[in-house]
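Exam revision sheet. Question 4 asks you to relate a sequence to its structure. Input first:
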Amino acid sequence: MGKLAGIIKIEGTLDGLTFYKSQDGYMVRTKGGVSKKRIMTDPAFARTRENLSEFALNAKSGKLIRDATGVILNRAKDPKLSSRMLQLMNTIKNFDAVSARGKRNVAAGIASEEGKQLLKGFDFNIKAPLASVLQASFTVATDTGTIAITDFIPLEQLSTPNSATHVSFRSAFINLDFATGLFDKSYSPISNVLLDQNLITVTLTPEQVPAGSGIQLYLLLIEFYQDVNGIQYPLRSGNYNALNLVEIF
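Answer key, structure tokens:
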């Protein structure tokens, strides 16, 4: 696969080459290859079928996390979130020490401490990693899902857009079972504060502890707003909004 250079940008197939537009620009690749029927039946492609099976399981697990995250995901995500998460799920499934090739899965991999540590700290918006947006320590109470940022000075401990006047914080507590595909979630009320030099404490407590079994995910969302005549408008670019999986238990 190559990147198409030149003034003329085309899409379609020509002389065995397929031209298409991607997020990285206009690309070109060769057309053809082994038929799907052969891949699915020929013993020579047994390893390929195993890889395809695990790929499908990984994609399903990544989608499950995004679905479980719910409405806050729309506030802070980047265009390549799905592919980044798929790559991470593929790595986590490698810690499945019990399943046969072709059946290794995230549910078993995430049960290991190594699998959990890989997922912990995941940024849903790679343009605004939490570590670069928030320069303040915080605590996570795993029993209630409460996230607390104490001794916090917004204007000093946040990387803010020039036009921002306010910032909002919100947390999510998710109970997710990769094996069954079931999840439950709970959000905290939004904490909206002025970007100034005052010392404050931000406490985010989800409305309830989510039901179900599985693993617990704790997320922190940071959004920036601009006040115009008493009305706060979200900054449309979203490049500074952060959503991070701060803890997993």
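Marking note for examiners. The first strand starts at residue 2 and ends at 3.
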